[in-house]
Design goal:
421 residues, mainly alpha, Growth Hormone, Chain: A, 17 helices
Length: 421
């Protein structure tokens, strides 16, 4: 079967389908609730990223040491996302998402009081583990509660919330830290996340199509094995990890680059650079239309090419070109992420939470790897080293997509009747 067509179809008649659709009951509340959840998740998860130069200064550590405040959170999320998805199969998506946010925001209020870098890294790891219950559960909730034709758009809106959270967290922390220090900045982000968590729980409609699954390890292992045996899912997991390697490396290091010569920007301005995340909000929310015109693989080629172009432009010692490069990197990343994550949800007919969890695990492994590798490369070779890491990751995306295209073509040829070959 052609990989692009290997997605489940809606077996119910539209007249009798009780799942949500744009314009229907509950859809707007659901979209806004998950938008807020995505905002809180990314604001907390990457809250230290724009503050790394200040953290390095206070604790007297290098960029690669300070980058562990990001890598520990994303690494813990990657480690715990699969077990948390299993809990969501048993106890429900909304329950697990709510519990995850409650624990994460509670830890977020403790983070500003960390007395040392090891303590800060430990708290950030705990926060990442708590947040692990949200991403996979959210995409599984959407796959169950939203009609298939609206799924890409709905997931795109959730990813758009991620971009808003990532942007607002960094911009707010940049300006607050410039006046009152990085600890106060993290406290402000924690308070914002509390408000998002409360609104999320009040707005999200109760699930109507969830069916509890088993927590038995053997059942979970079989589901995971089946997903990993699917060549399309394996490719999508690798693509998500590679895109996030680029993004994690670039945005972990960019603060150091802009604070140094020849730019020497103050902390508030460095934080404002993350307003570029708004570009990601647009590109993620339009991923559905992009797939409609170009197909999944065509959209991935475009996302990879856009990201690579941005990386090359960012090498210049010109602030306008650096900003243009960041815009293209951000647009390409969020488009690629929205396309790949929605394809996972469509491809997995059963065990959707585990399928999404495996994608999220790969995605955040890519984030941790990118944050660490980007910082090490920057320490060794400057910004050009970080760009080199990113270009290798984009090359991986393109190579995997080409391989998938050829595999689909061979599958189509095998299915073609002998007389038409």
């Amino acid at each position: 079967m052609d990989a692009d067509s290997a997605v489940p179809t809606d077996s119910a008649s539209p007249v009798h389908d009780t799942r949500m659709a744009p314009g229907g009951p509950g859809y707007r509340r659901m979209s806004f609730a998950l938008f807020l959840a995505g905002t809180a998740t990314f604001a907390l998860l990457y809250s230290t990223q724009a503050l790394l130069p200040l953290i390095s200064g206070e604790f007297g550590v290098t960029a690669s040491d300070a980058s562990w405040t990001v890598a520990a959170a994303t690494g813990a999320l990657a480690l715990f996302v699969l077990p948390m998805s299993a809990l969501s199969e048993r106890y429900g998506r909304r329950t697990v998402m709510t519990a995850s946010l409650v624990v994460a925001v509670t830890v977020g209020m403790l983070v500003p009081f960390a007395p040392s870098l090891p303590a800060l890294v430990a708290l950030r790891a705990l926060q990442g583990a708590a947040l692990a219950g949200l991403p996979a559960s959210a995409t599984a909730y959407l796959a169950e509660e939203v009609r298939p034709r609206a799924l890409v758009t709905a997931i795109g809106l959730f990813v758009a919330g991620n971009s808003v959270g990532g942007m607002s967290g960094r911009v707010i922390t940049g300006w607050v830290a410039q006046e009152w220090g990085w600890r106060v900045a993290l406290g402000v982000i924690g308070a914002i996340a509390v408000a998002c968590a409360v609104a999320f729980r009040l707005l999200l409609p109760a699930p109507k199509h969830f069916r509890p699954g088993s927590l038995r390890p053997r059942v979970l292992a079989r589901t995971v094995r089946d997903h990993l045996a699917n060549p399309l899912l394996r490719r999508l997991y690798a693509i998500g990890a590679l895109f996030m390697t680029v993004f994690g490396g670039v945005y972990t290091v960019i603060g150091y680059r802009l604070a140094e010569e020849p730019f020497s920007l103050p902390q508030g301005i460095v934080g404002s650079i993350f307003l570029i995340y708004l570009v990601g909000t647009v590109s993620a929310s339009t991923a559905g239309r992009l797939m409609g015109r170009l197909g999944r693989r065509g959209a991935l080629y475009l996302a990879g090419g856009t990201t690579a172009t941005g990386l090359v432009l960012s090498i210049a010692d010109s602030l306008p070109l650096v900003l243009l490069g960041l815009i293209l990197i951000t647009a390409g990343f969020f488009a690629g992420h929205a396309v790949a994550s929605s394809a996972v949800s469509k491809t997995a007919i059963t065990g959707r939470a585990q399928a999404s969890a495996l994608y999220q695990s790969a995605y955040y492994v890519g984030s941790s790897a990118g944050s660490t590798a980007g910082a090490v490369a920057f320490h060794a070779g400057g910004w050009a080293g970080t760009v080199g890491v990113g270009l290798l990751a984009v090359l991986g995306v393109v190579t995997i997509t080409v391989f998938g295209s050829r595999a689909a073509a061979r599958g189509a040829a095998r299915r073609r009747p002998m007389g038409t070959r």
